[in-house]
Amino acid sequence: MMKFKPNQTRTYDREGFKKRAACLCFRSEQEDEVLLVSSSRYPDQWIVPGGGMEPEEEPGGAAVREVYEEAGVKGKLGLLAIFEQNQDRKHRTYVYVLTVTEILEDWEDSVNIGRKREWFKVEDAIKVLQCHKPVHAEYLEKLKLGCSPANGNSTVPSLPDNNALFVTAAQTSGLPSSIR
């Protein structure tokens, strides 16, 4: 069953990109296990929880809301990067790291559409995501390169827009070493 939100309004930035937010949810601050959820469109495939931002919603609030709806977890939030998905889809996703502090037994998407969640070792999650959601795999790959603000030794440079690292899909493989 596919997720349907009757009141959802798509929001776009000034450049025409759909504004999205997502969370890499980790079991602990060691960031060695990440929580993935089943896709609403393809229930046998795993994805990083996330979705479109509502009008007037801040990216961090959208990320927290999405992970609560899709994965049934709460936790401590930190920003990883902003990813621009290819020019065809025109998505710009604010990706956050969330250290999970609370796990709900039942949550909105588990009850309404039967969504599942599962903990994966980071390396295994990257392999699973590379098959059908390579952009989601890139989120984890960038984290491994040291872009995480949650790991205590962040090498993300000070940038405008809430210190976000801006990454386009075309640039992710060639990021300068100064921001890895």
Automatic annotation (TrEMBL):
Main location: cytoplasm
UniProt entry keywords in alphabetical sequence: Cytoplasm, Hydrolase, Magnesium, Metal-binding, RNA-binding
Superkingdom classification of source: Eukaryota
Cross-referenced InterPro entries: DDP-like_NUDIX, NUDIX_hydrolase-like_dom_sf, NUDIX_hydrolase_CS, NUDIX_hydrolase_dom
Record field: catalytic activity: diphospho-myo-inositol polyphosphate + H2O = myo-inositol polyphosphate + phosphate
PROSITE patterns xref list: NUDIX, NUDIX_BOX
Signal peptide boundaries: none
GO molecular function: bis(5'-adenosyl)-hexaphosphatase activity; bis(5'-adenosyl)-pentaphosphatase activity; diphosphoinositol-polyphosphate diphosphatase activity; endopolyphosphatase activity; metal ion binding; snoRNA binding
Boundaries of every Nudix hydrolase domain copy: 18-144
Record-listed E.C. numbers: 3.6.1.52
Name of one Pfam family that matches: NUDIX
Family per similarity comment: Belongs to the Nudix hydrolase family. DIPP subfamily.
PANTHER family: DIPHOSPHOINOSITOL POLYPHOSPHATE PHOSPHOHYDROLASE, DIPHOSPHOINOSITOL POLYPHOSPHATE PHOSPHOHYDROLASE 2-RELATED
Protein name: diphosphoinositol-polyphosphate diphosphatase
